[in-house]
């Protein structure tokens, strides 16, 4: 799974979050210190859960407009 | 602690009962000795120089206006010339000092206000608690064992604790409104793009706002007026000033169609929070249980955008020295940096959808009400809280009701319910985009009716 796969990210199981963390960290060249791994994985799982609440509500092919309040 | 207001200090100065130097000296002494851990720096020499300049102007017959001689302080993410802009971090302690004041600081100084110090905050503004690993927790003046809220916790505590009558903070997801509510003072988050953010350290560029904290709604209007106006240094191009403080009486009498947001905006709210909302709703004859569809999704999108944009902003420092970050912030930023880019893109795509839902609602209402936070201030160190039957992170959850609103950039005044002797509870007065006047209309009416008020903390009552 590439880092850019939105549906694959949403479908990550808890057991696979750590593997995603390692793969994405290597892709980006962003090392995650060992002491941070559990906290980062927990946050990734939370972000996955949050993403499922809005990601399906818009058309991915639509352009993103410059936002005006 | 003086607990003066901007207006009472202005009168004292004009009537010759105090000089700007005397007022500044008192604020400086209070800032050095305060028990709230609100201040991270005190600018004594500069403050006294500014105060002397104000006194000299008065002596020469020049009236600088309502902020002349009024001490103020700023969240330490505002640039102050000659000082390092810490943004609550350890990493920036080695940065070069700012070469110029942030636009907002410069505007207040130009109006004669006297900058006395910089204020505690969550590291890089990422949090709702101001339990800063480097500077220690900001303490709630109403109960020193409880949090001041965040991320502008020092800004709220300084006003609530009576050190300065005016401070500045920033609000990306609730960081003005939440500490204002938990500390029992007024806080304002304007429309996105209304007030210049130039010279502030960013968190989430597409969601960042700045705004003032005060002890009264009228003071808030004075500060808001001084902060307005175009600024070529902010790419959001703040519009021409639309001053309000000359028409407060008219605003206070204005008729308002008010709705109380239900659904997501009350889910899990503590009983005293619901009670506060009901009291304000009764006073404004508001219609109950108004639904703003998509609020939970909007909150989630703001949550993800913040992690992603914040993570990208800090990518290089995270790669080089992650362990120098506050652990609670670091793990969130690292996770955000690791997100697929499509998460932030989806979060941005949903923004106009939710904005249009709010616009539709504002066809029927001039103002919407919602709680600031689900609960009064939790104890310092409390990691989790119960919300709607689930154990959730305090640090990540206090913004549940504020995040959907800042996601679409609406103007809000966080107003403290008048409940002396009890833990402060705040209510969001939410107006349509660019209609700050309607939020002020409600705040002024409620304040004059005695429904909302900032109180001295119990320890400081005379």
Explain what you see.
The complex is a heterodimer of chains A (69) and B (462). Chain A has 69 residues and is mostly helical. Chain A has helices spanning 6-10, 14-28, 37-54. In chain A, helix 2 (14-28) crosses helix 3 (37-54). Chain B has helices spanning 6-14, 20-33, 44-59, 103-110, 153-160, 177-183, 217-227, 248-253, 271-283, 295-313, 315-321, 327-338, 341-361, 394-397, 403-407, 436-448; strands spanning 39-42, 71-75, 114-119, 131-132, 136-137, 139-140, 143-147, 166-171, 186-189, 209-214, 258-261, 287-290, 367-371, 384-387, 390-393, 412-416, 426-430. The model of chain B has no long low-confidence stretch (mean pLDDT 97). Chain B has 462 residues and is an alpha+beta fold. In chain B, helix 10 crosses helix 12 (327-338) and helix 10 crosses helix 13 (341-361). Classes of the chains: A mainly alpha (69), B alpha+beta (462). At the A-B interface, helix 2 and helix 3 of A face helix 10, helix 11, helix 12 and helix 13 of B.
Task: Name the CATH architecture of chain B.
Answer: Alpha-Beta Complex
- Average pLDDT over all residues of chain A: 92
Oligomer: heterodimer
Largest interface: A-B, 41 and 48 residues
What is the strand tally of chain B?
Answer: 17
The portion of residues forming beta strands of chain A comes to under 5%
CATH class of chain B: Alpha Beta
Helix percentage range of chain B: 25-40%
* Name of the CATH homologous superfamily of chain B: Amidase signature (AS) domain
Largest sheet of chain B: 11 strands, mixed
Query: Structural class of the helix and strand makeup of chain A?
Result: mainly alpha
Give the amount of beta strand of chain B, in percent.
15-25%
The number of domains of chain B: 1
Number of helices of chain A: 3
What global shape of chain B is seen? globular
**Integer average pLDDT of chain B:** 97
């Amino acid at each position: 799974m590439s880092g850019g796969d939105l549906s694959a990210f949403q479908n990550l199981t808890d057991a696979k979050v750590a593997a995603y963390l390692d793969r994405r960290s290597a892709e980006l060249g962003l090392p995650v210190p060992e002491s941070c791994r559990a906290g980062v994985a927990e946050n990734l799982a939370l972000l996955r859960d949050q993403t499922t609440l809005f990601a399906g509500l818009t058309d991915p092919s639509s352009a993103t407009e410059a936002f005006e309040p | 602690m003086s607990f003066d207001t901007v207006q009472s200090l202005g009168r004292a100065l004009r009537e010759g009962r105090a000089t700007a130097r005397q007022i500044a000296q008192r604020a400086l002494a209070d800032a050095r000795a305060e028990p709230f851990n609100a201040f991270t720096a005190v600018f004594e020499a500069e403050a006294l120089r500014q105060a002397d300049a104000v006194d000299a102007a008065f002596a020469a017959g020049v009236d600088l206006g309502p902020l002349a001689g009024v001490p103020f302080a700023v969240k330490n993410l505002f640039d102050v010339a000659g000082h390092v802009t810490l943004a609550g971090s350890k990493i920036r302690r080695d940065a070069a000092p700012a070469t110029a004041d942030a636009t907002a600081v410069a505007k207040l100084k130009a109006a004669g206000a006297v900058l006395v110090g910089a204020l505690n905050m969550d590291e890089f503004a990422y949090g709702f608690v101001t339990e800063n690993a480097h500077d220690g927790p900001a303490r709630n003046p109403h109960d020193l064992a409880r949090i001041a809220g965040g991320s502008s916790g020092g800004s709220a505590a300084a006003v609530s604790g009576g050190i300065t009558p005016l401070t500045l903070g920033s609000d990306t997801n609730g960081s003005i409104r939440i500490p204002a509510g938990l500390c029992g003072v007024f806080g304002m988050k304007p429309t996105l793009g209304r007030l210049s953010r130039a010279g502030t350290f960013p968190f989430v560029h597409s969601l960042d706002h700045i705004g003032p904290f005060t002890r009264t709604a009228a003071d808030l209007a004075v500060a808001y007026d001084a902060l307005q106006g175009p600024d070529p240094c902010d790419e959001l191009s703040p519009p021409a000033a639309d001053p309000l403080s000359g028409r407060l009486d008219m605003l206070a009498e204005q008729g308002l169609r008010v709705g109380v947001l239900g659904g997501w905006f009350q889910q899990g709210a503590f009983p005293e929070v619901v009670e506060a909302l009901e009291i304000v709703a009764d006073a404004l004859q508001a219609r109950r249980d108004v639904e703003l569809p998509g609020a939970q999704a909007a909150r989630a999108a703001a949550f993800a955008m913040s992690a992603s944009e914040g993570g990208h902003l800090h990518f290089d420092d995270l790669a080089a020295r992650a362990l120098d970050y506050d652990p609670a912030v670091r793990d969130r930023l690292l996770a955000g940096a690791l997100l697929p880019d499509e998460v932030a893109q989806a979060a941005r795509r949903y923004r106009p959808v939710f904005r249009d839902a709010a616009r539709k609602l504002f066809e029927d209402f001039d103002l919407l009400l919602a709680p600031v936070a689900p609960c009064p201030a939790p104890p310092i160190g409390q990691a989790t809280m119960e919300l709607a039957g689930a154990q959730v992170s305090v640090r990540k959850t206090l913004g549940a009701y504020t995040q959907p609103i800042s996601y679409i950039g609406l103007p809000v005044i966080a107003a403290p319910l008048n409940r002396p002797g009890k833990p402060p509870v705040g209510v969001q007065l939410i107006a349509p985009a660019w209609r700050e006047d309607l939020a002020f209309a409600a705040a002024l009416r409620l304040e004059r009716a005695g429904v909302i008020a900032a109180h001295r903390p119990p320890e400081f009552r005379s």
